[in-house]
Amino acid sequence: MTTVTASALAGQPFLHGMPEEHLEFLAGQATLLTVPARHRFFDVGETARHFLLIRAGQVALDLVAPGDGRIIVEAIGRGDVVGVSWFFPPYQWQFGAVALQPTEVFELDALAVRQRCDEDPGFGYQFTGRLITVVARRLQGTRRRMMQACGERAALEGG
Fold first, then answer.
1. 108-122: per-residue pLDDT in tens?
2. Domains of the chain, CATH where assigned
3. Residue 59: Cβ within 10 Å count
4. What average pLDDT does the structure give for the chain?
């Protein structure tokens, strides 16, 4: 675990252009972790106490599908945010996350960031806008994958 600086966070696409005072606050809530491949960050249903920004490596978002075991929903990499469930009640992970290769992440304290969003409207606006962009991009990706799966199923059924 390593202490994080505002300049290290400024290099993260999710935080690009965020004011220096906001980056300073986030740096105080962050730790740099280096983990091996197959390290499980969290699992479905656990309390979401932190979120991650990927500095290097790749992380799979997964879940357990009845009869199919654990399946990868999406693989994300450098510059991506891991986890949004920490921002929305009931603050429980909706997916699991596991490192697909050796990975470096900034781990940030979710409660402290939520509190800052509530107390500082400027920070809250900046942060929430960035998080909504991540959620929208993930929903669009899910829609594309569902449409592709529907097309493949129709082709298999002869339609």
1. 999 999 999 999 999
2. 2-156 (2.60.120.10)
3. 24
4. 91
